[in-house]
Structure formats: C-alpha cells, structure tokens
Amino acid sequence: MPGLIPQPLPTHFNMDRDDCRRNKTLGKNLMCRLKCMFTSSSAPESRLSLEDTQQWSQSLERLLGSKYGLATFRTFLKSEFSDENIEFWLTCEDYKKITSSSKMGSKARKIFEQFVEAESPKEINIDYHTREEIKRKVKSPTPQCFDEAQKIVYGLMERDSYPRFLRSEMYKTLLESLAADNAQR
C-alpha cells in the first residue's frame, strides 16, 4: 500500500508562492470577466472608466454607489467565499422598499432564516443581543427591523472586506488594465 504512505513535499513546494500565483491568476481571470462585462457596452458614457474605478478607493459608500463598483465588490467577496455580508446588506435595502405588509412579513422571515438565525445558511456576524432583538421585531416587521444588523454588517465590511478589496489583485489588476487602455487611446 505505497499510496497510503505520506510522501515528503517536494523541495520546490512553497504554499505562499503558490497562493500568490493563484491569487494573481484569479485576479486576472476575474478582471477579464469584469472588463468584458463593463466595457462591452456600446455607449462610452456607460463603460467602466479608470477615474470611476479610482474613486472606489475613497469610501465604501462610493464603491457601493457605483453599479460597476458594487458588481466588482460582490465578485471579489464571492471569490473569497465571504459574500454573506453584502448579500444581507443588499437584501435589506430591497426589503426597505416593500410597501405591502403581507409581503414584508414573509420577506422578513426569509431574511431572518437565511442570514440572522443561528446556524443559518448565510449567517452574518452579529452579537446575540442584536440577533434576539431582530427575532422579536420579525414577529411584527417594519421597514427598520433589520437596521441595527445592517449597520453592524456595513461596519464589518468597511473595516475588513473593503480594505482587503482595495489591496486585492483583482482591484489592482483592474486599475492597471484600465490605465493601460487609457494610455493606448
């Protein structure tokens, strides 16, 4: 049973270097997909521009306020398997627009079950008190019943995910690619 005996790692194996290569490749592949999505439009004013992309680094609010910024940030978070916060935040934004009380009740329960409840499929990182408060509010939902959790999640994204995004190969490669495109014009 020679296959069951652990073999020593090759001397050329370097996990950090391999991770770096994988991240660069991932960044280039995702950047290529994003670039295709954002620059294939026939109207020049609706294309992704270097200036707009550079402005994403000014604030998370500016990034999320741009349709291309939001799409890029979501893609980045999905690539890191950490998209539950942005998905929750966006779902709450949509929830606030509901006017029908019956629809609000069913949507509130779905949001709770998907994001807030302990052990839920996309559980967000909030404290026990906030989780229990939402559990109580969902019984008689209002447009504001997820506001506290949404503020917490926004703060987490602002302090953690957003800085990682700005340092990511994806964002850097996208900036470099757009800068190169500008230089060719």
From TrEMBL:
Xref: SUPFAM superfamilies: Regulator of G-protein signaling, RGS (SSF48097)
Pfam families on file: RGS
Gene3D superfamilies for this protein: 1.10.196.10, Regulator of G-protein Signalling 4, domain 2
Gene Ontology biological-process entries: negative regulation of signal transduction
Protein name, entry field: Uncharacterized protein
